[in-house]
Design brief:
The chain has 8 helices and 5 strands, in the order E-H-E-H-H-H-E-H-E-H-H-E-H. The chain has a 5-stranded parallel β-sheet, sandwiched between helices. By secondary structure, it is an alpha/beta fold. Helix 2 packs across helix 3. It is about 60% helix and about 15% strand. It starts with 6 loop residues before the first strand and ends with a helix. Bound molecules: P1-(adenosine-5'-P5-(uridine-5')pentaphosphate and magnesium ion. Catalyzes the phosphorylation of pyrimidine nucleoside monophosphates at the expense of ATP. Plays an important role in de novo pyrimidine nucleotide biosynthesis. Has preference for UMP and dUMP as phosphate acceptors, but can also use CMP, dCMP and AMP. One of its GO terms (cellular component) is nucleus.
């Protein structure tokens, strides 16, 4: 496959900032293919016979970043599959890259991103959302202890990625505190400014 006709928008923001929620809206209005790195990792974790299952489980519970070889490969496979299946070549890559090495590896070996859609949200708001979701989500990391670790990783490891893209003029920042529909209005307006 060739990356020539591929558009990639990274979607970043803290745990519970609303990345998945906003991506779902964008999919139905713009026809993007949504690929959540976290969802792909959880699928791989549950895939019978996966050699990475136990490892992924531990990283997710601890809120740390799974070694990039695994995640980049899962994303690349999913991109290829999407293009072969329905010809979709506009991707929202949600929750990735979360570490500088992943960002560099993906942009070098797969395709450079067009820009990053960054959802900015205070920790108290994100924490409340995640604890609330934890009542029903069944996600192994939606508990107070894991959430605390996820926030720490986000600040220490993932924000440097956003800062680097910012320095390249490649960040579209959206305030994510209001309700999903209000946040989405802002997303649409900002994408329009970027010619999407
Ligand atoms: N909600 C959403 N928007 C709202 C709004 N505007 N107002 C009120 N409520 C709102 O939303 C979270 C909750 O908030 C939901 O209940 C929603 O209804 C509500 P969601 O849209 O799911 O937020 P999102 O930002 O997607 O939160 P998520 O929990 O998915 O974020 P994480 O970044 O923590 O999770 P992810 O799945 O991306 O990663 C999980 C783990 O996988 C990581 O911690 C890491 O261990 C591992 N990982 C890697 O190792 N490498 C990767 O590249 C990616 C992940
Ligand atoms: Mg998500």
């Amino acid at each position: 496959w060739s990356s020539e006709n591929v558009t990639v928008i990274f979607v970043l923001g803290g745990p519970g900032a609303g990345k998945g929620t906003q991506c779902a809206k964008l999919v139905s209005d713009y026809g993007f293919k949504h690929l959540s790195a976290g969802d792909l990792l959880r699928e791989e974790q549950d895939r019978p016979g996966s050699e990475f299952g136990e490892m992924i489980k531990t990283y997710i519970k601890e809120g740390t970043i799974v070694p990039m070889e695994v995640t980049v490969q899962l994303l690349e496979n999913a991109m290829k599959a999407s293009m072969e299946k329905d010809g979709k070549n506009m991707f929202l890559i949600d929750g990735f890259p979360r570490k500088l090495d992943q960002a560099h590896a993906f942009e070098r070996s797969v395709v450079p991103s067009k820009f990053t859609l960054f959802f900015d949200c205070p920790e108290e708001v994100m924490q409340e959302r995640l604890l609330n979701r934890g009542k029903t989500s069944g996600r192994a990391d939606d508990n107070a202890e894991s959430i605390k670790k996820r926030f720490k990783t986000f600040i220490e490891t993932s924000m440097p990625v956003v800062d680097e893209f910012e320095g390249q003029g490649k960040v579209v920042k959206v305030e994510a505190v209001k309700g999903p529909d209000e946040v989405y209005e802002d997303v649409k307006a900002k994408l329009k400014q970027r010619g999407v």
